[in-house]
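can u do me a favor
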């Protein structure tokens, strides 16, 4: 490595790549951040209007990363004078036999995320617009809420540039791996970029970019999101009157109340069909609209007949076990692979980017929970 700070190229300016680049920069590295279509763009898994941020996980590491992400968002939105996090709480509810009521509370206490355990009757009194039929328990996280997704990605990149990070909107092709390392990458303007280390946080494209190392360990799925209109002048379904919510029953929906003059958001968390993030058609399906309406009418009876105002089609990039991938490329010691958000990664981005930066800079060892070794042999190539 030449004298001076090492140069690290980060490919992908979404929730993972943007925060990783910012943390690397603040740790003293010279960082170039690249993205083919821009932070929070319409093809990105980190795009769209909003994402829930909550700590009720069954794995300690995710609860810890969420708590750290909450702290980082609060700190940095103050620094940037740009509100991204909205602390309106989150209510999770589900059927008997779910592990959440037993596993999540002690993990939340460990990290200091405020919550309350509710009976269904208590939840119905506290959130009267929700029909809790079929639920056996409820968990209300008071410190939770939602993040502005595409605006959050843009805020991170703008902050990164203000701190003298270099952002370039170009597509990237990995260079040749020789002697156990990669010297440079090829850019869509015909040039090459040389760096000491490379972090590829390519979201749903990660398996296509590295078919041998990742391949079908990343499987993008088509996910539909809907925004329904509330009654004129009625604040009952707006974000200052109700929390975000997750239905942990087999119905599998989640949502965010009306905010920033948008509609009442509802989405199915169950994995959709295989999807091409580059060329896939992003028009909502009649089946998806019908399922969302049926669920809306059941859980939120006062919203029955509400008009559909907007719809989005994004994608999850699912790993085989639903967990993050953060590991060194098996054939290149200076290349890092970061992805596998699996539908829950946005909320973890700030803390995960900090963790990734520490690992890349060898300030801490790789986290076994995220390493590729858990999958065994190399995968077949993705499509």
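np, heres the sequence
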């Amino acid at each position: 490595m030449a004298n001076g700070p090492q140069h690290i190229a980060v490919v992908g300016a979404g929730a993972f790549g943007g925060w990783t680049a910012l943390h690397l920069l603040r740790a003293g590295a010279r960082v170039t951040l690249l993205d083919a279509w821009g932070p929070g763009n319409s093809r990105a898994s980190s795009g769209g209007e909003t994402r829930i941020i909550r700590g009720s996980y069954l794995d300690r590491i995710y609860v810890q990363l969420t708590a750290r992400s909450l702290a980082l968002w609060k700190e940095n939105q103050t620094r940037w004078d740009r509100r991204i996090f909205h602390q309106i709480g989150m209510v999770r509810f589900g059927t008997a036999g779910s592990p959440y009521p037993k596993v999540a509370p002690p993990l939340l206490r460990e990290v200091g995320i405020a919550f309350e355990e509710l009976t269904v009757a208590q939840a119905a009194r506290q959130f009267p617009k929700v029909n809790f039929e079929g639920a056996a328990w409820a968990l209300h996280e008071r410190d939770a809420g939602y993040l502005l997704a595409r605006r959050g990605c843009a805020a991170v990149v703008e902050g990164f540039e203000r701190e003298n990070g270099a952002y370039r909107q170009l597509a990237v092709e990995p260079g040749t791996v020789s002697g156990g390392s990669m010297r440079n990458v090829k850019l869509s303007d015909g040039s090459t970029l040389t760096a000491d280390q490379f972090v590829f946080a390519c979201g749903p494209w990660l398996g296509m970019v590295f078919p041998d190392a990742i391949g079908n360990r990343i499987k993008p799925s088509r996910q539909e999101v809907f925004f329904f209109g509330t009654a004129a002048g009625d604040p009952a379904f707006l974000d200052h009157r109700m929390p975000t919510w997750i239905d942990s029953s087999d119905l599998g929906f989640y949502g965010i109340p009306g905010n920033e003059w948008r509609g009442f958001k509802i989405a199915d968390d169950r994995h959709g069909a295989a999807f091409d993030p580059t060329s896939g058609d992003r028009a909502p399906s009649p089946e998806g609209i019908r399922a969302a309406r049926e669920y809306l009418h059941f859980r939120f009876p006062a919203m029955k007949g509400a008009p559909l105002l907007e719809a989005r089609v994004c994608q999850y990039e699912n790993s085989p076990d639903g967990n993050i991938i953060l590991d060194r490329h098996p054939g290149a010691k200076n290349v890092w692979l970061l992805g596998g958000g699996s539908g829950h990664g946005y909320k973890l981005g700030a803390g995960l980017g900090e963790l990734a930066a520490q690992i890349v800079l060898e300030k801490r060892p790789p986290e076994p929970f995220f390493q590729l070794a858990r999958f065994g042999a190399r995968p077949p190539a993705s499509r």
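The first strand starts at residue 7 and ends at 11. hope that helps!!
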